[in-house]
Amino acid sequence: MSLYTNILYLLHTLIRLRIWLFSVWDKVVITTKSIVAMNFIQNPGSLIDLSSIHRDSKRMKQIPAHIGLVVVEDSISCKDIAKVIVWSIGIGIPCVTLFDQKGWLKEMRHKINQEVTNYYNLLLSKEKTKMVLSCRNGIALANISIPGYSKPIRLNFLSNSDGRQDIVTAAQKLCSDSNFYHATVTDQEIDRVTSTLHATHGFPDPELVIKFGDIDSMLGFLPWQIRLTEITSLLSHWNLPYSLFLNVIRDYSNCQQRFGK
Mind listing the pLDDT tens digit for each residue in 149-188? Predict the structure, then answer.
């Protein structure tokens, strides 16, 4: 074995070791955040007041217009996912996209919609207005009107077939257009690609994504739309405390996006 071969082998080993150490460190950080948040969880008998969630939103420098919830766990809790959706609505996020690779969320969308309605109305028990959430063709639309808050809420349920395959379908459509085939790469052409994608049609690109699970992969979640997205990983969505969700939103609020600079 030559000297160069030995050097290359050593470099390869060191690089793999570095990647492994970073992976372990990320999991330690995620676990630590979850444990710390659980220490501050409220009494299970108490209920988060929607007005307090609104007050929390007033302290934010910026709030995402679109949040993605990516579940890479082996099981899904409809009630816990519904709570995260309601917290997002309360903070003032009008668009929520839910994704898992196998399409479980899509299959459970009607149950999740019902859980969202139940939990939201529970938080609004002192108010006269109730939330009614309807689901059409996989996209849930809701018009909510409560004191100090009136926004259309949109939920989008996606699976693996809505990620990479959506890009393939869009590319095939655009390649059949001779004008696009001879075009140079400009912002206008990039916008045209974005408008051709079906998965998030009518939605802005996600500005924040919360990934639930210890797998170091997005598993094909909207690869085109998340090129400028802030991504946070949490250990699990099961029994997620509001305090941990709020910390994620605060971190996003305080971050400064440099767009690759």
Answer: 556 678 888 888 776 666 666 666 666 665 555 555 554 4
SS in 3 state form for 199-246?
CCCCCCCCCEEEEECCCCCCCCCCCCCCCCCEEEEECCCCCCCHHHHH
Q: Has domain 46-163+199-254 been given CATH number 3.40.1180.10?
A: yes
3-state class of 66 per DSSP? strand
Q: What is the pLDDT of residues 120-148, one digit of tens each?
A: 888 876 555 566 665 555 555 555 544 45
Residue 171 identity (one-letter amino acid): A
The span from the CA of 225 to the CA of 234, in Å, is: 21
In angstroms, the CA 254 to CA 249 distance is 9
Ordered by start, the domain boundaries in the chain are 1-39, 46-163+199-254
Q: Specify the 3-state DSSP secondary structure of 71.
A: strand
Query: Strands, E, within 133-248: which ranges?
Result: 134-136, 139-146, 149-158, 208-212, 230-234
Question: How many CB atoms sit inside 10 A of residue 127's CB?
Answer: 13
How many C-beta atoms surround the C-beta of residue 94 within 10 A? 18
* Strand pairing report for 149-158 and 208-212: unpaired
Measured distance CA(253)–CA(258) in Å, rounded = 14
The tokens of 96 are what?
């929520």
- The answer to whether the CB of 40 falls within 8 A of the CB of 243 is yes
Instruction: State phi, psi for 139 to the nearest 5 degrees.
Output: -115, 125
